[in-house]
Amino acid sequence: MIRRVRIGKKNMVYIPKEIADAVGVREGDAMLVKVSSGKIELIPMGKTEGEYWAEVTLEEIESVGEELSERTLRSNS
Description:
The protein has helices spanning 17-23, 58-76, and strands at residues 31-36, 39-44. By secondary structure, it is an alpha+beta fold. The chain has one domain. It is elongated, with a radius of gyration of 20 Å. The mean pLDDT is 88.
């Protein structure tokens, strides 16, 4: 399926409803944007059961790692 769209303000691209429905995306869904050989590809990031995406900082990762290490040490002593 191919449709012509225009670039709007702030480089916004609106996906025609027919295409959005066909691939199962709706407003607010996350998509990956891939640029290759002068082409732009939009890839829906559908969730699978038990899969979640989040943004975390390095400090948050370190904190969780330290907490898990402490729990492991306490349970083994």
